[in-house]
Each structure stands twice: as C-alpha cells, then as structure tokens.
C-alpha cells in the first residue's frame, strides 16, 4: 500500500517541479515602458492608444502605433505584425505582449480592451440608481 | 455602493431573496437540533418531528429561490426596464430564446441560476441522505447561503432612477444557441458538486466513513457530465462563433471551470476505489472538499476583477471580492480543519496477511495502485493549471503581476496526457487484488500490438516527434484495451458495468484528436481580391461578393432585406467565398464580418466546413470595400527643424505656435500656426505661416479646418493635415505634379485566416463516447444509491 502512495507522491512532486520550472520560464511580467526597453525577455506593457499614431500596412500586415502611459504620459512605440485587431481604434487600453528588439518593441500578442456596453455599471451611470 | 445596497427595487423579488436567506438559516438551525437529538439518542418521534420541520423549512427556502428566479424571468420577458438588470442585459429586439438567456447574462442572474439548481437538487438530496440527513442538509444549505448573501447585498431587482425606453441588449457574442444552453448546464454542474461536499463533511462530522460514497457518487458523476458538457460547449462556441481558431485557449475563464471538473474526475475515481476496497477514505474527503473549493476559487478569480488585465474576457469588480474570499476561507479552512481534527480517527483498515501476521501491501500491479496513481496524476494536472491561472495573483507579491504564456500548459500537459494514456491502457488488465507481470503482458499483448500499429500508421501519415508518437501509441492501445472490455461486458449482458471502460475509450479518442488537430494544423493568411480565384493550400477560393445572411440562414443582398421581419433585421454581413476542392467539389462559405449597430463594434464569426478527416476554418479578418480613382495630395509628416522635399520643393517646419486667444469664444477655438520655410526649385527660402483652426464642440469633439497656402512660383499648394504633438505635424502637398496626386482605384478585397484542422472530429466524437460512458455509470451508481437509501 505504502508503495503506491510513495509512487503517487513522486509523480505529484515530479509534476510540481516541472510545473514550477516551466512557470518561471513562461512568465511574462507587466513592466513599465522604460523597463520594457531594457528587458531581454518577453514582457507585457499596458497603456492607452495615442490617438492618430496607428498606421497599418496591409501588404506587410504591419501595425505601428504608440502606447501612452495614462499617468506619466510617456509614449511607447509598438510594432505588431499580424492582422489588425477588430475595434483597435476604440480601445480604452491595450496590453502588448512581446519583446524589445533592435527596431523597437515587437508585440506578439495584443489584448485590446474595448469599453463594454454590456455591464450594469454603464446603465446605472447613465440612468442613475434609485436609492 | 451603499445606496445600491439600500435600494430595494422590485419589492417582491428582493423579499423573496431575503425570505430564502431566512428560511435557509432557520432550516439549518432546526437540522442542527435534529442532529443533536440523533446524537443524544432521543426518541425517534422527537427526531422525526425535528427533521420534518427542517424539511418544511428547506422546502420554503427552495420555494423562495424558485419564486425569485421566476420573478426575474418574468420581468425580463415583459421588458420591465425599470430594473437595472433588465435594462443592462436585454432589449426589445431580441427573439424569445435569447430573451430567455438574458437571465444569466449578468453576474447576479448567473448566481441566481446557480441557486435555482441548488434548491431543486436539495429536494432530492434529503431523500437519499437517510440517517445522515441532518448533517448533510446543514452543510448543503450552508454551501449556498453565502451566494444568497451576495444576492441580498446585490439583488438583481434594483431599480433605475429614470426608465429607459429600451435596454442595452444582449452582448452579440452571447447571441448564439450554444450560449443559451451552456450556462444552465454549467451551473447545474456547479450546484450538484455541493452534494459530495456536504456528504464528505457530514462523514467527518458524524464519523460514518463509508456509506456516504455510495450516495454521493451519482452527484459527482452528474457534475462530471454537466460540467464536462458545459466546458465542451464553451469550447465549441469559441471555435464556431468567436473565431479563436481553436476550441481551447487556456483562458482563465476556461481554466476555472476545467479545474473543478478535473477535481471531480479525480473524486469519481477515488470514490470508486473506496467503494471497491472499503479503504482509502481520506482521499475522497480531501477531494470532495477541494473540488467544491475549486469552484468557489474559480468564481472568485472570474468575478472579482483580479484578472481584468490578463484575459480577453472582461471581468468587472462587483464589490463582492471580500465576500467571496470570506466564503472560500470558511469552507476551505473549516473543511480541512475538521479533516485534520478527525485525521487519526479515520480507520485505515489494514489487511493482515494471515501467513506473516503483518500488514499486507496492495500488490503493485493492481487496480488500487493504478487508481491512486491516476487520481494523483489528475490532481497534479489540476494543480498545475490552477498555478498557471493564479499566476497574476501569486506574482502580485513581487510587485510585478505576471501571467504565464500558454506554452506553460502545453509543456506541462504533454507528459500528463502520455501517462494518462498509459494508465487507461492498463486498467482493463488489472484486478483489484493484483496480477503478476507475466499475466499482464500476456493479456495486454493484443492491445499493445494495436497501439504499435496505430503509432506506425501515424508515423506513415507524417506524425514526427517521439512524444507525439508515444502519446498516439498509448492512446490507441488504451482505446483497443477498453473497447475489448466493453465488448466483453456487453456479451455477458452486463451493460451497466461498461461505463468506466466506455469513458476511457472516449478519452483515448479525444487525446488523439487534441494532439493531431493542434500540432498538425496549417494556418495561412490570404487577401482575396473580388472575383479573382486564389490557390489556398489545395483548394481554390474566390471572393464572390459581400452579402447578408439572415438569422434563418437565407443569403440576401442589402436591398432584399425586409426590415419588417426580425430575422432580416438581425441579418449579418457576410463574405461569400466560393471554395473549390481539388476533387472538383464546389461550395460557398459565408464567414461573417459585421458591425454591431448598438455598440459600433466590428464582429467576426468564422465559417467552418467539417468533414470526418479535416475541418476547413475560415476566420474573417478585414474587408476593404474598394474605392474608385480619386485625387489626394502627398502626405508629409514633419518635426520641428526637419526638412523634407516633394517634387523639388523643400519644406521645413521651424516652429508650431498655438494661438489660444479665442479659447473663451463660443465655440472655443484654437489656431495652430505652423511657421514654415518653403524653398521652391531654384528660388530662395521663403518664410510662410500655414494655419489650421481647431474648433471645440460638445462632448470633446473637435473639428479642424485648414486653409491652403500657395507655393510661390509653382501651381502647388499645401495645407496642415493634422497636428501630431507640440512640435510635429503633417502637411498635405497638392498640385505640384497633378498626375502624382491621382490615387488609383483599389479593388474590393477580403482578408481571411484559413486553417485546416485534421481529425478535429475525433475531439467531438471522443467526447460523446466519454459522456456516454459517464451516463452509463451515472445510471448504475444512481441505482446503487437508491438501493442504499432504501436499505
């Protein structure tokens, strides 16, 4: 009996070790713009789209735009080579996951947050809630 | 927030929720009294009276919950936009089946749905619990009262101050048949997981260690079926409607329902083990507690807003984070605390070997060991997923909240899948008591040969990579071995016993499907020009035209839409693409790309052409309607001090001066003066000022108008196009070379992601087989439970 439990424990431990080592490797931390420029690993940065800075070249599928930090107003140029996400221009905030390379920050993935009109809060803001 | 709390809104509804709270607490109190009477050995009549009263109070609780749900449903169906909830999630222009599903479109409604199923299930639970009834019902009710508390704090019956004429409508992504049934099935699974939890805690409380497993097992199987079905439906929806390109993305929302399901799978195996061996009791108590806590934790992750920056889903903070954390702590600490308190009392039931008089160990090659290993493996998988999903919280302490890339899950699950494949392949050949290695090899030989053959076929078909081949080999061996057992039992007319084997056949098929469709998919991005056949992979695709597809599936032109019909009003713009296969089959695909008029957001739904061998997946990306020939100047972005030339004329931006003197005019105006130095060919540099007036309108909308500035000595002119910061702007130069200003026409074009997914049909087929196995097991265990409660 004990043997089975020991084997089970060994399996569990093995996976936890594998999990934890993969965990730290596949981590993509949120960093500030200045940290993103010096970091050599894949990171994520968040900001608002600086109005009027996005350019999309359909032929090369390259999207250029600037993120702007809502607090410090710092600007951070991003290059994204893929199909331009739907609703990109309406985004309230954009998360860019990628790496800083010689020609700038190359995003592999963009998470585009649009103002959701399907959340109760919005309606209550508009029509007020009765106390 | 406090105003919202005090708001009563639609009084009957809020009253029903508070009544549920009251009757729930009262039922708990009465059941506790009944348990005391039972423990003290009081006369049966007293005990029966107390239990009867507890039942009536529970029935009142359930009635209140059902009533509150019915009221909410009625208010939604009658478009009562006085209610914040109704106005937020529904609208007048919804077909009745989608209107029905707005019930669970918001957080409060989905909690309501959870309670609704819990209330109904409870009515069955008290009938099967027998002598455990007081303890079971106390814990069962307690597991729901936390959620009732959330609804007391945040009732879905709140009123708005002003009544809008129409609601916001249902999120268009949720307007899909799968999303009508997915949440109810999901919450039915969540609710039924309270039953094993209640039985496990009751077992610890009353120290009755074995009977509970038989009675709780059908409910664990019920969760296995419902939650599993709901997860797959969600994946299918993501695949068919959202156009993620796959059915699984390891998104937190998916993971938080997968983890409780895995815990349930582990629990079902653990219960089966305890039932067969009448030992290994601690495993099930632990699993039942953890499975339930996983659901609470998942609810916390997805509803507290902690993951808002880490998922494509939007999570909002309802202000219930504290509540949720509190509920989790109560059940987790309470449950595990009670377990620790009773730990030493739980009998281990060692088997004594009569020959040596010492404790006998389970034979290594036995089902017992196999079950323990598989439970461990499934738990390891769940733990790793939980770890990955919680990364943003775990790393918050370091100050840099991070998430893990999806490879994390793929890397860690390759060995899990392989080992699970192997264990499933061995199960049919091992008995509880154990086998010798030679017997196992002899019995498993045929299945092993089939697995080897399957691996060979996969290799011939182009599968490379040792890991992939091993997984396919194990899975096919597992499939063969379990099919053999199924056939054996069917021949013996013992169909009721095939559940487990059948489920394993399904899992094996799924494993092959998941691996092949994921690792061997081919993705290509193409831009199709209207009318031009384009070779994509082996097919030829032609973008025919842009059309509208009505809700009934009819293809119409814009002018053919009949606005008086709901199905036509809800028509979506689609791209008609003609696909010709190399075998000469021709069909039309309609990937949809349309503007949601309420939200002004672009939505895309893919088109999937499924065959047994392959899915052809067309995911729309963008549509360019094309434009006729037009005249447009040369755009020239300039920074302060920078000089650029167009057709021999040099432009230098010396400074940008803002004239704010008219800021107080009505409407407010700002004039942008660009101090330019313009050098026509062969002439001296000339200082000029180009102007643009920016007028500020209501709602922060600005309008700008720029006047042309002539370039002396040429036919050209230029104007400011836009300001791009304090020291840079963009100008447009026209007329210097009139031919150069002509922009040629662009063709109508459609960009689309085209993916081929081989054998994805196996994922769905395997799932059906797995669920069929689960259903057979549920029927069998349900009968056992009924027999046990009659006894």
Overall form of chain A: elongated
Beta strand % of chain A: 35-45%
Whole-angstrom Rg of chain B: 33 Å
What is the number of helices of chain A? 3
- How much of the residues of chain B is beta strand, in percent? 15-25%
Count of β-strands of chain A: 7
User: Shape of chain B, please?
Assistant: globular
Number of helices of chain B: 21
CATH architecture of chain A: Beta Barrel
* Estimated helix fraction of chain A: 25-40%
Radius of gyration of chain A: 21 Å
Query: Terminal Cα separation of chain B, in Å?
Result: 53 Å
CATH class of chain A, please?
A: Mainly Beta
CATH fold label of chain A: OB fold (Dihydrolipoamide Acetyltransferase, E2P)
Within the largest sheet of chain A, what's the order of strands? Answer: 2-4-5-7-6
Number of domains of chain A: 1
